[in-house]
Amino acid sequence: MSTFSRRAFLASASALTLVAVAPAARSNGAVPFSRAEVIARARALAGRPFSPRSKVPADWLSMTYDQYRSIQFDVGKALWSGTDRSYNVDFFLPGLYFERPVQLHTVTGGMAASVPFDIDRFTRHPEISPELSTEGALGYSGFRLRTDLDDPDHPGKKTEFCVFQGASYFRAIAKGNAYGLSARGLALKTGEPEGEEFPDFVSFWLEAPGPLQENMVVHALMDSPSVTGAYRFDITPGNPCVMDVEATLFAREELTHAGLAPLTSMFLFDGTNHQRFDDFRPAVHDSDGLLLKNGNGEVIWRPLANPTRLQVSSFVDENPTGFGLIQRARKLSDFADLEAHYHRRPSLWVEPRGDWGAGAVTLVEIPADKEIYDNIVAYWRPATPYETGAQIDLAYRLSWGEEPVLDLPRVINTASGAKIFGDPGRLMVIDYEAHPLFEAEPDAFEIHVSSPHLDPSAGILERNPETGGMRLAFSFDPGSRTHVELRAQLRHNGKAASEVWLYRWTV
Fold first, then answer.
1. Are residues 320 and 466 in the same domain?
2. Minimal CA–CA distance to 298: which of 321, 278, 327?
3. Among residues 363, 380, 401, which one ends one of the domains?
């Protein structure tokens, strides 16, 4: 499913049954609001059978892609436009892939009021835009946030940097980024044979910011056949864009495969698999690796792959320090794409708060033949399933933009090819960035190359005059094997002098 339609289609998988936990409204329709109120709603929903909410009318769903795109939001009619509040909020149209609208509310002075659907907030193209029904379950499909990002060319202009739309998907960018990968509230049964379940954010509360307020607070209610949840996002744009997330989940059913803090991205090809694609560009991806810092402080880099068969990798850990999907290719020439700007796609780093216990950072890589597909998913999977009726409290920070600085020399490129001379086999080449640790000569470093499946060569380390870093090359003979796990690391004076490089070679 395409990036656009996948994220959008997911919006059809959930429900919202407003329960009798809301306090009485004032005469203007506003009611008292707090995070505890959202938690109470999620708890009450979990005690009731799941019931999908209504779809928008059929004519809204039958629009073509061009018709849907021809109806554009008028930013002059954004929420808080024309006020001194530090943020504006634009709304997205329902219909097409977005079958079920969400409920939106503003929160001012501790009181919540609903934001009714208003088609007059949108402009239409007279030759393309269809006439649409005005009755039925109409509402917005999501929203985007805009604020002043200190653009010297447009002082005072409110620029978009964050979007919530489709199931529990959301995405953000740092200054200078172009939109790329997404995050989700929760992943369920990802990669399982019976199919994935996509919980929905079904209702949002937007806290009205003050005139000079730097952060924006968004609350969300989640619903799904297996789970409900209450989320709070404290969002501060900049470089990076930081989101502090608090979530309280309630299991309607046993959650045997829950993915916490899930990330979703796209990887089509790079130099390791370019031969499969007849494309003028040297690489196409939103992210090129999974980065982890485990509970023992070990830093691991796992280059992403676009396999020919679904593959799932688990990195067992306890109380991880952080993990994320990273875009390290940062030059236009890495992609030679003047439109997609893949070199400007953000990395996304997850930092758990509190004790997450035992589990595994899980990487799911799905075969894809086009760049419109989101085929990479990464998340934390707890070792023990959550029982029916369980309450799960978790907190974490998301940082959108450049990857975190973890002190060790980074892998900046992985290349692979057949051996041309000598015994048959494959050659692996790993380039490390320039780093103060590499002021020592190559022979001062210990090379650790290993595999649980075979005996790779010892490896040769030499300085790369173009990058100023080191290049490690080694070979292995897979024989008749269809996949081989490989591990490499440099050490100096008994200490780590590079990330741990992990790679899964497949036919």
1. no
2. 321
3. 401
The mean pLDDT value for 329-348 works out to: 97
Confidence of residue 25 (pLDDT cuts 50, 70, 90): low
Of 177, 202, 179, 198, the residue nearest 188 (C-alpha): 198
189: left (phi over 0), alpha (psi -120 to 50) or beta: left
What are phi and psi for residue 285, nearest 5 degrees?
-170, 150
Q: ∠ CA(139), CA(140), CA(146), 5° rounding?
A: 150
Band of the pLDDT at 143, cuts 50, 70, 90?
very high
- For the chain, the first-to-last Cα distance in angstroms comes to 24
154 lies in the same domain as 13:
yes
Q: Could you tell me if 200 and 186 are in contact, meaning their C-beta atoms sit under 8 angstroms apart?
A: no
Contact 283, 267 (CB under 8 A): no
Instruction: Count CB-CB contacts under 10 A for residue 127.
Output: 6
β-sheet with 426-432: strand ranges across: 411-418, 426-432, 470-476, 460-463
Q: Which residues contact 171 (CB under 8 A, 6 or more apart)?
A: 162, 163, 179, 180, 181, 182, 183, 400
**Per residue in 250-279, pLDDT tens?**
999 999 999 999 999 999 999 999 999 999
Q: pLDDT tens digits for 184-212?
A: 999 999 999 999 999 999 999 999 999 99
The DSSP line for 339-370 is: TT-GGGPPEEEEEEES---EEEEEEEE---SS
| Residue 171 shares a structural domain with residue 209 | yes
What CATH number is given to the structural domain containing 322?
A: 2.70.98.10
Structure tokens at 227: 């789970």
**Range of lowest pLDDT (9-13, 348-352, 445-449):** 9-13
- The residue whose two tokens read 């050490």 is 491
Residue 305 to residue 383: CA distance in whole angstroms: 25
Dihedral sign computed on CA atoms, order 387, 392, 394, 398? positive
State which residues form the domain around 482: 411-506
Q: Kindly state whether residue 24 falls inside one of the protein's structural domains.
A: no
* 2 Cβ neighbours under 8 A, 6+ residues apart: 370, 372, 373
Model pTM?
A: 0.92
Encode pLDDT of 71-85 as tens digits: 999 999 999 999 999
Spell out a b/e string for 432-443, using b for 16 or more CB atoms within 10 Å of the CB, else e: bbebebbeeeee
* pLDDT value of position 28: 62
